[in-house]
Amino acid sequence: MGGRVNEDLIKERRKCTFDIKELTHIIDCGEENTIKRKQIDNYILNIKELWDDVPEEYLSHKERYENAIKKAFIVLKVLRQLHTGNIQITDHRTPTNVYSIQDGIFRNVNPLLIHIGLFWSTIAAQASTEQQAEWLQPDSSMIGTYVQTELGHGSFIRGIETTATYDSTTDEFILHTPRLSAYKWWPGGLGNTANACLVMAQLYINGTCHGLHIFLAQIRDFDTHKPLPGIKVGEIGPKMGFNTADNGFLGFDNHRIPRTNMLMKNVQVLRDGTYVKPKHDKLTYGSMLLTRVTLISDLAYQLSKAATIAVRYSAVRRQSPIKSNEPERQILDFVSQQHKLFITIASSHVYRVVGLWMWNSHKRVTADIHEGNMGQLPELHALACCLKAISSRDASALVEQCRLACGGHGYMMASNLPQIYAYTTAAVTYEGEYTVLLLQTARYLVKFWRLAAEHKPLPQNFAYFEDYIKKNFEQWRNSPEGIIEGFKAIVAGKTKAAYDTLQCNLRNGREFEEAWNMASVQLTNASEYSTISRNDIEALQSRYEELLALIRPNAVGLVDAFDIRDEVLCSTLGAYDGRVYERMMEEASKSPLNEDVVNESFHKYIRPVTMKNKL
Ligand SMILES: CCCCCCCCCC/C=C\CCCCCCCCCC(=O)SCCNC(=O)CCNC(=O)[C@H](O)C(C)(C)COP(=O)(O)OP(=O)(O)OC[C@H]1O[C@@H](n2cnc3c(N)ncnc32)[C@H](O)[C@@H]1OP(=O)(O)O
Ligand SMILES: Cc1cc2nc3c(=O)[nH]c(=O)nc-3n(C[C@H](O)[C@H](O)[C@H](O)COP(=O)(O)OP(=O)(O)OC[C@H]3O[C@@H](n4cnc5c(N)ncnc54)[C@H](O)[C@@H]3O)c2cc1C
């Protein structure tokens, strides 16, 4: 859409006091990455077939999927071409990625998300060298997914009921779904797209259960795409979001696969049925760990999209004067609005930085694991659980705050804020539900608190537990170091309270698991344990308000620095030119309800009632 840039946005950009490009390069981890990202954006976003004439929202459930799958395979083809052209795009966690622009192409979810994001990465991480050589061919016919959750079990994966029983006479595993609750339910791309999958199932050899293992199973014929004999597969129906992801269900009726289809990098079943144990029994859960780490950066990106939309809109939108004799003000001038939005910008930066740090930690710990050293795995798992849980919860709360900050117009699908919300809130549940993951971190903390309480040696990372016990914490200081000290005091105090409750429940004769359950609210909720005083809080509050005023002139610059193209933002409210009302009108004109001047339902239903006595 052509036309002038909104005057208020022009003025905002003139006011900006820092170099926007420099911040973009910092976000991209370097100017080179920015250049590459833009090249890839240009290349992919210029493919005309990827753009819709009719907005996605007006399509039926079936049409949406078919439209998304058309685009997904155009993108897959391009990805392969770019890959062979030696452009580093497969490492989607670095800023040089194509992952982010898919939001614009699909306005929803790529049906190949799990194929690319989990299927391939799990094979790469958990299959033996020979299996990888066979399965990771660039021209492979396999379109796969990651099949773990069942109708009856999601969080408690040890309760998974699908079985894989070794038959040494034929050198095969028999995959079986023993009852309705064992049906696989949820995997993305399973409903219609995938012809293969990685299945999590209980391994049985000679009547002994060895727990959960991952198996590669073909489920549809590569040529006809019909389900193979013994496979019952389909799609689970409409959801709050993710409606182009064809999440599916799957049941096995004694479906046979070769023994060599178990992922065998860390664990093996030999021809004679000998079971060779892994070095750590949670290595099978590695894909969940990796995805949790990846999600932190993805959620940071979703926050930057929501912030860009809401800040630009707030600079364009004028509503109410502050003094009654003045003209109406940009809503961005209201301090309460700044509070709603600047926290979203800040959170995006926080989770971006933490996400990158976690990504590098994951690389380091994985390299150690390859060398046989598992020592850092528990800490990484505890951190990934906590950060995935809070980043998803914060992101969905803040995206919703941005939507509300756009008033009624934020409720329009054309603002794209409802879609961003539906996407982020799903992450609170999938890949480890929020509370369940926080309890994993609590379990880790309580272990170290027990050591501290029993005056046993603690690793350096937990020295502050001892400081807390010895009351070595300094008085609150209003500085970054002081804030970190404050957080340490909160963690120590919260862990102590939960631990004390746990001990009290145990003394009262409860078994450990029951005592744990009774303490679980304390284990997940933060309390105020710090040396902060009322005066400190007042000082912090006024400093916070000063900071909002300092950020105000740079607000638009800060979101421009995220450098998200209009085609990716997909928002009438957040486009770079700020022509909000023109875009809203243009989008409204696409509504099928505006196709006829008089809708036929008038003649069928309305007129017979309203004109009944007048005809
Ligand atoms: C234009 C271009 C387009 C291109 C598109 C490309 C796309 C690119 C990719 C983008 C990539 C990513 C984006 C992300 C989007 C992803 C969408 C994802 C969709 C969702 C997928 C799923 O949901 S899959 C299913 C996930 N399921 C879960 O997460 C289940 C949650 N439950 C659990 O994980 C576990 O059961 C549990 C952790 C809760 C507990 O396990 P369990 O009961 O077995 O154990 P215990 O509690 O008894 O603990 C035993 C000890 O083991 C430790 N533990 C547990 N888990 C782990 C682990 N993972 N690693 C290490 N250690 C672990 C636990 O701490 C205990 O330790 P101790 O205390 O020492 O005994
Ligand atoms: C959009 C989307 C995409 C998905 N994609 C996939 C996929 O590709 N592949 C796949 O395998 N799965 C997928 N899933 C499934 C997902 O991983 C599970 O939904 C998730 O792990 C949560 O499990 P659940 O649904 O069984 O919830 P439940 O475990 O039944 O949780 C329900 C409630 O019980 C509480 N609860 C459960 N256990 C405990 C406990 N021990 N202590 C305290 N509270 C507890 C939870 O906190 C929650 O409040 C997807 C889900 C969604 C929503």
Automatic annotation (TrEMBL):
Binding site for FAD: 149, 188
Domain Acyl-coenzyme A oxidase N-terminal: 19-138
Family in the record: Belongs to the acyl-CoA oxidase family.
Protein's name in the database: Acyl-coenzyme A oxidase
InterPro entries: ACOX_C_alpha1 (IPR055060), Acyl-CoA_ox_N (IPR029320), Acyl-CoA_Oxase/DH_mid-dom_sf (IPR046373), Acyl-CoA_oxidase (IPR012258), Acyl-CoA_oxidase_C (IPR002655), AcylCo_DH-like_C (IPR036250), AcylCoA_DH/ox_N_sf (IPR037069), AcylCoA_DH/oxidase_NM_dom_sf (IPR009100)
Active site (catalytic residues): 431 (proton acceptor)
Acyl-CoA oxidase C-alpha1 domain ranges (all copies): 285-446
Location(s) in or outside the cell: Peroxisome
Main location (coarse class): other
A GO MF term: FAD binding
Keywords: FAD, Fatty acid metabolism, Flavoprotein, Lipid metabolism, Oxidoreductase, Peroxisome
Pfam families: ACOX, ACOX_C_alpha1, Acyl-CoA_ox_N
Domain of life: Eukaryota
Biological processes per GO annotation: fatty acid beta-oxidation using acyl-CoA oxidase; lipid homeostasis
Cofactor or coenzyme needed: FAD
Alphabetized PANTHER family for the sequence: ELECTRON TRANSPORT OXIDOREDUCTASE, PEROXISOMAL ACYL-COENZYME A OXIDASE 1
GO cellular component, one term: peroxisome
